[in-house]
Amino acid sequence: MHYSKLEHFTQPVVLIRSNIGNKFAVMKWQIALVVLVLLCHMYLPKAWAQDTSQPPQTDTTQESSVNEAEESKRKKTVESQKEIENDVSDRQTVPQEESQIPELTPEQKKAEELFVQGEALINATFVKKFDEALLLFDQAAKLNHTKAKEYVAFAHLFGDHLPHNVSRARELLEELAAIGSPRAQMGLAYMYSSGIHFNSSQAKALVYLTFGALGGDPLAQMALGYRYYAGVGVEMKCESALTYYRKVSKTVADGVSVSGGVAVQRIRLQDEAESQGTNSPLLDEDLLQYYHFLADKGDTQAQIVLGQLYYQGGRGVAVNHEQALHYFMTAAESGNPNAYAYLGKMYSEGSPHVPQNNMTALQYFRKAADKNNPIGQAGLGMMYLQGRGVDKDLTKAFRYFSLAADQGWVEGQLQLGIMYFSGLGVRRDYKMAVKFFNLASQGGHVLAYYNLAQMHATGTGVLRSCNTAVEIEIVRDAISLQLYKNVAERGRWSEMIMDAHRLYKEGHVDAALIKYTFLADLGYEVAQSNVAYILDRGESNLFDRHETLQRALLMYGRAASQGSTTARLKMGDYHYYGYGTDVDYETAATHYRLASEQQHNAQAMFNLGYMHEMGQGLKKDIHLAKRFYDMAAETSMDAQIPVVLALIKLALFYGVADVFNKEVNSI
């Protein structure tokens, strides 16, 4: 058992038995209970529930007020309990009476074999053979295998390892949706929503999304959650968004290991272009080769870096546990504590290349912990917590997690939060649980976000706040936690962000745009920003220029509402110049002011200064113009030269030379 999520929220509240004998027993008890209630109603006084030792209430107004308050409190409690019970119902499967499973025909057996072989290829831990898998799925689809058809439909839709064929994708999705496939309903919802090679219909998109979400498709749930979260095509409803995001985050959390899962780089194309690749989260191929060169020469630090890259994946490097084991083993020969710790993790978790072995894991964790390594300390804590290779000892587990947490190790912080929440080996303390979950979430751990979301959503240990749990207010003084939405966006589907980026860098702009658009519908701000960036630059041939700018404006708007400074600035530019909309100086000024006040953007400040100077959408005011120019110069070094030029203009045309001279001297 992994103590990773808050199991407190997932315990069954009702035990349902399915055998016939127990049904009769339950009926007998139900009859007896009904008779007892009737007898009580007949013979007990109506005020049986009141404490007769207390004097009767004479103030009927006060009594009514108290009753209303109690009823309101009861309703809130019931609502909170329903949320927990919903969580329970999603996890628990009610036993059903055994039914006869129809025997598969030879054709169905063949289709299932092909499908299983294909899934094995794409779910491989290391090298995923998508091309081979899709060929197998295509064969299975021709034999009428439903799941295989879903894979083939989306492959044609995105042009992924099969030719881009929207007509074929639509044909398959409509066929599957007609028989109730939630994933196909999600696919059709995307096609109607995006309007790419398709007549757009937001109403139909919403219908298909709703059916897909009710059918349990996590992508449909996520897309619908985002719509309620941001008010896209529906009324903004925090509780509805919370419901859908909770379902998705639960799915994600169930599939995440205690180490937090594979890292996915969220690359904004505009940021990458402006930095000319210097700040790219992807590892340069030359740098990777250099690490290999150093590692082969015996550089222990390079060996550790490569081991971590191959163990966790990320930065454009695929997971490869065979390579990770090699580099950790090599570094361990030099007595490196990080190498010991990661070897412990690998043997503790097990993989096709590293057989699971508790005793070997324990040995490596001890070696690392003896050198005060926090990864090894957290690993030992897990061994004692779960009784793997040692007797279960919660006190020792708590001690080792504390040692790791004191050094800032995220897994130690996460497990301390779990122990404080559940009262494992320590007195239950929800405030301490929140503290350690917060610390672990700052380290980016998915399960820490999930557990915090559970506590905020149900008001456990914190004041219940729907706005905190779902993050309706994106731009605020303090950065609010992403919680359920953050967890949902770390599902396996987030790997599509890297796929889209790869396609874009390879020159397949339209294919990248289609994937980014799909992710944008799921609520990924980075995808919305990238769709807008591609359209803004006119790099796609899917739409005419006017529609391209309209779509770019729409995506910039959605990204801006999620806190993107660049998108907010672009919203101002589009309304100022009339790109994709009518020229509207007042609206442009509103967006610039938001970017200036909430995000301290120097360009927005400069633009506000110019608009005050020219009287465009704002009152013409030279002093306010100068104030905004000054603010821009103080905020960014890059703004200082444009500000000097603007002040020269003010001095020449408006006679404010004395003020200008003072400003020049200060710069």
TrEMBL record:
GO annotations of cellular component type: endoplasmic reticulum membrane
Any GO BP annotation: ERAD pathway
Pfam family, one: Sel1
Start-end of Low complexity biased regions: 50-62
Disordered: region residues: 50-106
Biased composition (Basic and acidic residues): 70-90
UniProt family annotation: Belongs to the sel-1 family.
Record-given protein name: Uncharacterized protein
Provenance organism: Pomacea canaliculata
